[in-house]
Hints:
The complex is a heterodimer. Chain A is α/β, with parallel strands linked by helices. Chain A has helices at 12-19, 34-40, 42-45, 56-75, 89-103, 119-130, 148-153, 177-184, 258-296, 323-332, 352-356, 361-364, 378-398; strands at 2-3, 6-7, 22-23, 83-86, 110-114, 134-138, 159-163, 190-194, 213-217, 228-232, 300-302, 313-318, 335-336, 367-371, 408-409. Chain A has a seven-stranded mixed sheet, with helices on both faces. In chain A, helix 4 (56-75) packs parallel to helix 9, helix 9 (258-296) packs across helix 13 and helix 10 (323-332) packs across helix 13. Chain B has eight helices and twelve strands. Chain B has helices at residues 8-15, 65-78, 83-87, 91-97, 106-125, 129-134, 186-195, 215-223; strands at 22-23, 28-35, 40-48, 54-62, 164-165, 178-182, 201-205, 227-229, 232-238, 245-250, 255-260, 263-265. Chains A and B meet through helix 10, helix 12 and strand 15 of A and helix 1, strand 1, strand 3, strand 4 and helix 2 of B.
Amino acid sequence: MTDGGNVKATDPGEALRSAGVVYADYQSAKPVDPRVVEAMLPYFTEKFGNAASLHGVGDVATQALEEARARVAAFFGADPREIVFTSGATEASNLAVAGYALRNRRKGDHVIISEAEHISVLTLGKYLEKQGFRVTRAPIDLYGRVNPKKLRARITDETILVSLQWASNEIGTVQPVAEIAEMLDGTGIALHSDAVAAEGLLPIDTSAVPVSLLSLSSNDLYGPRGIGALYVRKGVQVAPQLLGGGQERGLRSGSEDLAGIVGFAAAADIMAAEMPAEVERIRAIRDRLVERVLSEIPDVHLNGHPEQRLPNNAHFRFEAVEGEAMVLSLRDAGIAASTGSACSSKTLEPSHTLISCGLLHEEAHGSLEFTFGRWSRMEDVDRIMEALPGVIRRLRSLSPLYKTSAPAEP
Amino acid sequence: MKSTQYTDKTLDHFRNPRNVGTLEGENVAVGRVGNPTCGDLMDIYIRVGDDDTIQDIKFQTFGCGSAVATSSMITELVQGMKLDDALKVSRGDVADALEGLPPIKMHCSNLAADALHEAIKNWREGVSPEDAKKTPGGTACHPIPAAVAEVEIKGLDAYEGKGLYRTLDHLDDVADERVVVLDTGDEAAQLAIDLTEHTGRVVLMTTGKEPSVSPAVRSALRLSDVKVLAEAQPLELLGEGELERIRVHDLNEDEEYELTADAFVVLE
Lengths: 410, 268
């Protein structure tokens, strides 16, 4: 939107309201905070230099890049030299899991990956198997949490790496990362954690939790997409997965996306200042939705851990209703939510996390996820609850599985 | 094409499905296809007139948007049609009538045509609606062929005391665990019901279509939080040191899968 020559970013809350949409899918994508957009703008047109250049324009870029690195590092309790900027969390996880395993192969050929991991990390596990590594899955409990004892039982003399997400992007369960990190500290086994889902919702402090590698994304702090970072603890060695001109200390070649990196840093600054109050506000909205859904709709269950869960996450399963049908119906009511049902996935397989929690396929198909964020409001819960009970009733009336489906016509 | 990129016609049939319901009485047949495991189950009811035409047609569907839309569409397509002509209505015809389906959803249009054909077949063979609903014909979602069902469960001895229970005196021993109780009658079912006070996940696994329990226990089961897993034959206990998974033969689909579990109770 232009305003007398000045570019202004639209407020996401206003944009959603004028479109009549209740957005409850913050885990899939978050709007960029307009303050972040503003901070980025000069880096497209004025301060556009390449940090590798020797002239003054390049120096301005170098200074901005290193300042931004320091601010991102500070947010995660890290040293600036421990932050490698990437194109996002998927690339960060590639550099962490494949990069660490391939670089440290001489120490052993065994990698442990939790069953709750994001698809990007699970896919990396399959890649490593093709590269000749042995990859073991660490099981999760009823609530989606890894049992440290079971994880420990899978460690062998050949184990070099454990990958355990900070929290589930899907059911919101928070993993005992600190406990596992303490357990592995000093053993020579590296711990990688994909922290994306937890960013901005839980404190992530590498000075307090001895993780070796941490995958991070800017968008999860309301920064731009297409930028992320890998935290690499001092002394931890990874092999680069993207080769070229040797940027980012040789670990990630390619000219840095300066505007994106500045945006990441601005998002981290805002989050550092606002997180405590924001999290409590979002938690209250989430708690209200959970309370109302469980008390006002019959035959519904909460997936994931009752307490150890992300404060923005409400993940339900409804008996005898299919997830895609729920999401489509809610879409008609102007509500954006998501599901772990097979019918919404490219593979036609239901969510691996729900199956690993012990749910049957038919139960996983009935899942519905709401995730709240910076522009969510308590009224969103009212809007959801105006629509959801009717949606469930209607779909159950079509379903041959629900006990009180439509009566037969004589 | 994204699964949500349905045509307007598909969305209309999803939002306002035609001919929802069931039929009872004379000259009625049912075709049931799909499996809740795969995320869809479809019943199509037809009432056949003396002139061998479809006089009335109804459906019930558990499934995604296109499963609902295709079942609604096919009921409109074949209303009043001769049975022989209705048998010629193909999967492609249903998708065409909806002005196309996303490629990944073509599976669903198969279901609607299959359910109709199944209903006509059942009508001609005199299969009652009750029997028809007991034997779903199936589009398998997991094309993994199952091994021949062994009656003996492998690994029972190996997990004795490590997740396998022959008796369970202290229900708190399995607090917050995923407990699978093998259906061996009323006592097992009652134990499953009692266990729901101690853990959020209790599955009663039976090889039959329903647990082999008395009517009183059956209604108690229905009111309880016990999840009944029917037509499931446990094949093998799996896990590192302790029980973690049960390999199960789905007797209905003739496929195998692994069910995550921490405790398996087989009362003696």
